[in-house]
Specification:
CATH architecture of one domain: 3-Layer(aba) Sandwich
CATH class of one domain: Alpha Beta
Order of helices and strands: EHEEHEHEHEEHEEEHEEHEHH
Bound molecules: nicotinamide-adenine-dinucleotide
Distance between the termini: 45 Å
Strand content: 15-25%
Strand order of the largest sheet: 3-2-1-4-5-6-11
Structural class: alpha/beta
Length: 313
């Protein structure tokens, strides 16, 4: 079977492709920046092509050539500062191009990334877990585009009977993350490099989830032909930046982490209490303790720098 992954040389794609290969899939990766990942170790099992999801004819031609059994779309701008037309072309038109090209090519199975951002701030819900059926309070450019993608996916499901599945990653973490929410990453990677780091709010809340776990979720969901639900939260660890700093200091006692404000970040925080029982129950996803993931990221940075790994004592 063949899986086509658009945006497959990015942060999540680099972890997802090996998991699909391990499941025996032939993988066609399409990306506008095909050189940012090296899949040569997988030989003919992974083919990388250059293509632009915002250009319908280009996207459709790549899909028709690949004849995939399923499509995963990860191509997106992460952030809300882009000029409206630029962001719209990739995020809204690009996603619709994916659904429409899949439909025209007879590919019924599509999985794409939405985001926890659709929920907006946690304060909209109070101190409770938010699930996939809750109202979406997101309001910034990125969130509005994801909300529209979810609506469009539902429209394709209803009008064309397509099996399109939405995955809403929380604050994905990993040493090579450079786009999106990066404070919870830099508070680990900068001390691991011996650099000082200052964050605005110690009480700012996050829901970090390691990119290895996100890739595993995408792989399991994509490989299932008819999941029980249309939308899955991945969830993440409910934790403040101050608490992440405490974990980092356990491993790096001289870490230079400071905060401009000791209090006051919680009410500004995005959705950090997330109900992920759908993905856990149906797909048997297990999350390693977050503390282990912090150590993993520290050690990945140390490895890059030729330093020996730290151990948990
Ligand atoms: N990283 C996170 O924390 C996070 C959290 C929630 C949701 N998500 C979602 O997961 C998906 C993947 O995120 P990521 O972290 O891997 O992002 P990324 O930016 O690392 O990867 C996106 C890939 O899309 C490619 N791309 C950009 N424009 C393209 C175009 N016009 N045509 C084809 N390819 C194009 C990029 O070259 C890149 O390789 C996105 O939809 C993102 O919104 C990510």
């Amino acid at each position: 079977m063949t899986t086509f992954v658009a945006g497959g040389t990015g942060f999540i794609g680099r972890r997802l492709i090996p998991l699909l290969v391990a499941r025996g899939e032939e993988v066609v990766v399409m990306d506008i920046n095909p050189q940012t990942a090296d899949y040569s170790a997988y030989g003919k099992q992974v083919r990388v092509v250059r293509g632009d999801v915002s250009q319908f004819d280009d996207f459709q031609a790549r899909i028709v050539e690949a004849k995939p059994d399923r499509i995963v779309n990860l191509a997106y701008y992460i952030g809300s500062d882009l000029p409206p037309r630029v962001a719209f072309k990739l995020n809204v038109l690009g996603m619709d191009n994916c659904f429409e090209a899949a439909r025209l090519a007879g590919v019924n199975r599509v999985v794409y990334a939405s985001s926890v951002a659709v929920s907006g701030e946690q304060k909209n819900y109070g101190e409770r877990l938010v699930d996939e059926t809750d109202f979406k309070h997101g309001h910034v450019q990125y969130a509005m585009h994801k909300i529209f993608n979810e609506w469009q996916a539902q429209d394709y499901r209803e009008k064309h009977g397509m099996e399109i599945t939405t995955i809403r990653p929380a604050n994905v973490t990993g040493p090579d993350k450079i786009f999106g929410s990066v404070d919870h990453v830099f508070i680990v990677t900068k001390p691991a490099r011996g650099e000082p780091v200052t964050m605005p709010y110690k009480d700012a809340m996050r829901a970090p989830v390691h990119v290895d776990e996100i890739a595993e979720i995408f792989a399991r969901v994509a490989m299932k032909d008819k999941p029980e639900h249309a939308i899955y939260n991945t969830g993440g660890q409910t934790i403040s930046l101050g608490e992440i700093a405490d974990i980092v200091r356990e491993f790096i006692p001289d870490a230079q982490i400071s905060f401009d404000h000791e209090t006051g970040g919680r009410e500004r925080s995005g959705n950090f209490m997330i109900d992920n029982s759908r993905v856990v129950t149906e797909f048997g996803i297990q999350f390693r303790p977050y503390r282990e993931r912090v150590l993993q990221i520290i050690n990945e940075v140390r490895k890059e720098r030729g330093l020996p790994p730290l151990s948990d004592h």
